[in-house]
Amino acid sequence: MRNIGISSTSTRGRRRSPRGYSSTLAESMRSTRFSQLSSVLDPDKPPRSDKVSILGDAARLLMQLKTKAE
């Protein structure tokens, strides 16, 4: 079976991009999401870049909310 006119997409319909570009873009988006999460968890403090502590704070907050809900 031949794909006519669809030479820039893979068989799953995703666009092909250079390997370095897509991983750099993904890491940039991930860092942005972590900084957004950090600012939501504690809006009074400046955003942190330490992903481990951000995830720890998020887990702690979720446990507190779960306890309050019960």
Automatic annotation (TrEMBL):
Kindly list the biological process annotations in GO that this record carries.
intracellular iron ion homeostasis
Q: Which GO terms describe its molecular function?
A: DNA-binding transcription factor activity; protein dimerization activity
Provide ranges: composition bias, Polar residues: 25-39
The molecule here is called BHLH domain-containing protein
Q: Where is the composition biased (Low complexity)?
A: 1-11
Query: Where is this chain compositionally biased, Basic and acidic residues type?
Result: 42-51
Q: Looking at the record, which segments are called Disordered?
A: 1-52
